[in-house]
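hi support,

uploading two proteins for the ticket. first:
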Amino acid sequence: MTGYGTGVWWLLLACKDPCPPGDACVVAGTGRAAYDGEGLRAVDSSLYLPTDVLRWPDGRLAIVDYNNYRLRAIDDAGVLDTVAGDGEHGYATPGAGLLDSAFENPIAAEIGPDGLVYVVAQHEGRVFVLRGGVVEVVVGTGVLGYAGDGGDALAAQLWDPTGLVFDGDDLYVADDLTHRVRRVRAGVIETVVGPEDLDRPMGMSVDAGSLYIADSGHHRIVAYDLDGGGLSVVAGTGAAGYDGDGGPAVEAALRSPQGVLAVDGTVFVADSGNHVVRRIVDGTIDAFAGTAFPAPLGDAGPPDEAPLSLPTGLFVDTGGDLYVASMLAHQIVRVRVP
């Protein structure tokens, strides 16, 4: 590197984009499972099994930090702080302040049509809304089980809910251990998919009139027609494996997919058991990110050389970049558009 003085060289390093277009990089997590406290840079702060990623209503990138029992957000300076959850492993306290309530393994979050944040707490079988600085219950009694279809959602039982998504004002909840997707409409809960045709549904997404479901136990992605009610296979043969890149998605093998995100006709699949994210365009599936060998990601590099470990939640920002919760690597990974 002759020809540059020391000061100029360090200036060039400081100005280098840490995540150039077309590359994958870490935006949060050290790769170590821990809680390091508040106020650290996100890339220097440990997470513990992050499961989902989204934009907080104020524009910050937010993380569902499953085993730290918190929701956390990254500010414009890259600093990570808790926005909900006191870090205790216990049932949430309705009416408590956002930082004063426990969460029993928050697993997924979504922004509702009212602009508020909704959170699924997996092991207490409830869905919460964060409203006016406090935690409120919107679905579930906290008693694990299956009950309540046709009645008040607040009187219903869920059993290990794992995902949620909105279609307009309708809230859909994936109820993992009852093998159902349930809909809350005007406060009334009903089963709309399952249990015969689902096995451990997890992440969900809505696009162009279809509800996409990660049918984890069947190693498939399926779509439910929100108008007609039919169910169709989008990807996966039903047998666990990894093959089919470059061919029809319905003929490809997946392994326990836990996340799906459909955006303007493109479908991203968190092919969790294969440790990759795959992309479906016009019915054809290809590998998008991950090496199929689980590991934490270090330096930025091409997505197909960037390891993931049990990818779960997915989010695409307005610029088209994909964010991935790499759960077992304890990281959030950003894949930038070229």
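and the second one:
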Amino acid sequence: MGQTIISAIGVYISTSIDYLIILIILFAQLSQNKQKWHIYAGQYLGTGLLIGVSLVAAYIVNFVPEAWMVGLLGLIPIYLGIRFAIVGEGKEEEEIIERLEQSKANQLFWTVTLLTIASGGDNLGIYIPYFASLDWSQTLVALLVFAIGIIIFCELSRVLSSIPLIFETIEKYERIIVPLVFISLGLYIMYESGTIETFLNFIL
């Protein structure tokens, strides 16, 4: 269980760093503290929809006859990690931030929900192979970690929104942290599914 918790924390943090930046911007724009619950709810709904799609896809993938074939999905986060290291987020994050700055308070909930989904499209490439590598009990543990992670990230963002230096530091090192975690996750999935062992046996 400890290994599952650690891997779930790594997955959530690595896929949510861009959310952290967006949330900091959102909290910095709030005129009323009570509006923060719109952000919380939007994050939960948006993330929940992404995870729901991932769980369905992971369930289908589990019908693959050989476990090591499922491990090939680990190549997806490895690819995403390498791409992120080379080209970064690109223009998509800039467009998301521009939309955040234009959003109105009464549309905050749906704005956060839609932007969570829009900015989390690549997360499916991480979530699907990750959940496919877990059994049902490990999946429940991972979902609990994600649920707690959303609360922590929202509160952390609210606090950091008043500290510009922190925001700049996170943005600066995002391009190092995210690829490192993504690639490690991909290798972990391939190892757990026996894919690496299968390849080594085939080569040797």
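thanks. also noticed: The two ends are 33 Å apart (CA to CA).
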